[in-house]
Specification:
Number of strands: 0
Radius of gyration: 19 Å
Number of domains: 1
Helix content: 55-70%
Shape: globular
CATH topology: Glycerol uptake facilitator protein
Order of helices and strands: HHHHHHHHHHHH
Distance between the termini: 22 Å
Structural class: mainly alpha
Strand content: under 5%
Largest sheet: none
């Protein structure tokens, strides 16, 4: 049986979902550019904003609000509604583990996310490299805090567990599903404000690798490649154990009926013939 360009199980005839992959690359690239700009504005010693805001906690709160707003804007944009707004290989891997993402889309999304993040950092480096390279900003790298790699691992596991728990709870509750992106953005803002001193607040292997490549600093990189997917999959396992797999409706953070959904297409095609689609 052969399918059209759907992301479902195929015999190889259907083309890859290139539009969704490109959106994922562009989305994380834009997020990295935004992070670079706001980090320079708030943390570079020569920035007037840094001088006006002496409190490190307040600067982190402003940074958190900026990046949370960036995440929300990307999630609710037409692009984000088309791709599902993962922008994070740990998110895509978790929905793959839940059976909501086709294998080829897992690969396509992950490759696009890693490339997009790195290209975004490269663009930011070209535009504001002299300021971005300052030690106070240093390409917005994520590094372990005073508790070292073990503490950073625990912190990253905890925040990714919370984030995925929030995403699954909101997106699979019809009365509040439309607020999933707002809830995810609020988590980003809160984590940057309160958790960043412990791990640098990554949540995202592609985001950390992009900064590490630009800075040529691979300090404890394994923490940020391993902890986020483990934390998210643990949250998904807890959600599945409590509610069952069929409670998970879709891999999109913001599902809009008028927008094509490669994940719903895949789920419907992969159901047993006697089982009605969700």
């Amino acid at each position: 049986m052969s399918l059209s360009s759907s992301g479902g199980r195929t015999n190889g005839a259907a083309p890859p979902n290139w539009r969704e992959y490109l959106i994922e690359a562009a989305g994380l690239g834009l997020f990295m550019i935004s992070a670079s700009i706001f980090a320079v504005l708030l943390e570079h010693p020569a920035s007037p904003f840094h001088a006006l805001i002496p409190s490190a906690l307040l600067r982190r709160a402003i940074m958190g609000a900026a990046m949370g707003a960036t995440a929300i804007a990307l999630i609710y944009s037409p692009w984000g509604q088309r791709s599902g707004a993962h922008f994070n290989p740990a998110v895509t891997l978790t929905f793959f583990w839940l059976g909501k993402v086709a294998h080829r889309d897992l690969v396509g999304y992950a490759v696009a996310q890693f490339l997009g993040g790195s290209l975004g950092m490269a663009a930011a480096s070209l535009a504001i490299g002299r300021w971005l390279a300052h030690p106070a900003v240093y390409f917005v790298v994520t590094r372990p805090g005073p508790a070292g790699p073990a503490g950073a691992f625990g912190a990253e596991f905890a925040i990714t567990f919370i984030l995925m728990g929030v995403v699954l709870t909101f997106s699979n509750t019809p009365s509040i599903a439309r607020y999933t992106g707002v809830a995810a953005g609020a988590c980003v803002a809160l984590f940057i404000t309160l958790e960043a001193p412990y791990s640098g607040m990554s949540l995202n292997p592609a985001r950390t690798l992009a900064s590490a490549i630009a800075a040529r600093d691979m300090t404890a990189l394994w923490v940020y490649l391993v902890a986020p997917p483990l934390g998210m999959i643990a949250a998904a396992a807890a959600y599945r154990a409590r509610y069952g797999l069929r409670r998970v409706r879709c891999a999109k953070l913001r599902h809009v009926d008028r927008m094509r959904c490669i994940f719903c297409e895949y789920s419907q095609k992969s159901l047993p013939p006697e089982t009605p689609p969700l």
